[in-house]
Write a structure and sequence with these properties.
There is one protein chain. With 347 residues, this protein is mainly alpha-helical. It is 78% helix and 0% strand. The chain has 15 helices and no strands. Helix 4 packs antiparallel against helix 12 and helix 7 packs antiparallel against helix 8. The chain starts with 6 loop residues before the first helix and ends with a helix.
Length: 347
């Protein structure tokens, strides 16, 4: 027997008229153009700015001039920022759909902290020095914390509030552990200091090559899950009536989030709020359909990350502010605003 969904949910997930689809498609194209512009700014702006001619010459010629060398260095940083930003945006959107909580993200649910704690443990106590090793430890830490949060939140009976509380408690405990390790191990402090705040400074071609397969698999999984996650967002009973396999969808969604967040954290360290802000803002103009939210998050999250990275290079020039600090400074007030707006709307 089919279970009918509530009228408001049917209205939310009803097919959009052709004009709305065209408007969303145009918006996605404009977002892609904005991403290209921000990526070019990421290559051109730094401790020493480059002219458009130098950027063009550095991208398409290789004569060993100063500008060409700078473009080569910044290009790796920009490409990694594109990949990591897309991964964080996608993982945030997937977790928001999975938990039915529009304020969820990998940081709030402890996945970032789990990956960070595992990598720092590998660095300090196991002598792991390669990015490949970091990636696997990041996956293990992210998966373990994700499973623990899901268990503490009530497993199949988990509610958004219980998941958020469990994630917050575990995150606080793990970051306390991170601080203790850095204080007691002076030799590891310098190496971990920039990594634990989130940074694109150490980006290299090797970094990109090593994390790309994991990010690619996680991205494909997330995009394939758009339709079943739409059903999950409407509630368990409605999802079952629509033929969705809840256990499989949840398991694959968690796997996707862990792969995306684990690889991103291994490459750059924990970067907060990108996975929260972008999907939440995107949802406000695309509606609840993940077939639009996921592509928009994939494009706009790198815009935020690279824009924050460029801002960090400018505000303290010739020094540099790490991108994880910039996103935290931006994200804190935005998160408070979003929470207050939702609370006001519920009154």
């Amino acid at each position: 027997m089919l279970v009918d969904s509530p009228p408001e949910q049917r209205a939310e997930h009803a097919p959009a008229p052709p004009t709305r689809h065209a408007a969303k498609a145009l918006g996605l194209l404009l977002a892609a153009v904005l991403l290209v512009l921000v990526a070019l700014a990421s290559i051109a702006i730094g401790a020493k700015g480059l002219s458009p001619a130098q950027v063009w010459h550095g991208l398409f010629h290789d004569t060993g001039t100063y500008g060409d060398v700078v473009v080569d260095e910044r290009l790796s940083r920009t490409v990694l920022g594109l990949l990591v930003g897309a991964a964080l945006g996608l993982s945030g959107a997937v977790l928001q759909a999975l938990t039915r909580n529009p304020l969820a993200d990998p940081g709030l649910l402890g996945i970032n902290a789990g990956a960070s704690a595992a990598v720092v443990t590998a660095m300090t106590y196991l002598g792991v020095t390669s990015l490949t090793g970091y990636v696997w430890f990041a996956f293990l830490g992210a998966a373990a914390v994700g499973a623990l949060v899901w268990f503490l939140g009530g497993s199949r009976g988990a509610t958004p509030v219980r998941l958020a509380l469990a994630g917050t408690a575990i995150t606080a405990a793990l970051y306390g552990y991170l601080q203790a390790v850095m204080i007691t191990d002076g030799a590891a402090l310098g190496k971990m200091r920039f990594w634990t705040v989130g940074s694109l400074v150490s980006a290299t071609d090797s970094t990109i090559v090593q994390v790309l397969p994991f990010l690619a698999v996680g991205t494909v999984l997330a995009l394939v899950l758009a339709r079943p996650l739409n059903a999950v967002e409407m509630g368990d009973d409605t999802a079952r009536a629509l033929g969705a396999n809840l256990d499989r969808t949840r398991a694959l969604a968690m796997l996707s989030a862990v792969m995306l967040c684990g690889a991103a954290t291994a490459a750059c360290g924990p970067i907060m709020f990108v996975g929260l802000m972008v999907p939440h803002v995107v949802r406000s103009f695309t509606g609840p359909d993940l077939r639009w939210i996921l592509p928009y998050a994939t494009v706009l999250a790198p815009v935020l990350l690279l824009g924050s990275d460029v801002l960090g290079r400018v505000v303290t020039r010739p020094a540099e502010l790490q991108v994880g600090i910039v996103t935290a400074v931006i994200g804190g007030p935005v998160f408070i605003f979003l929470v207050r707006r939702r609370r006001t709307a519920q009154l």
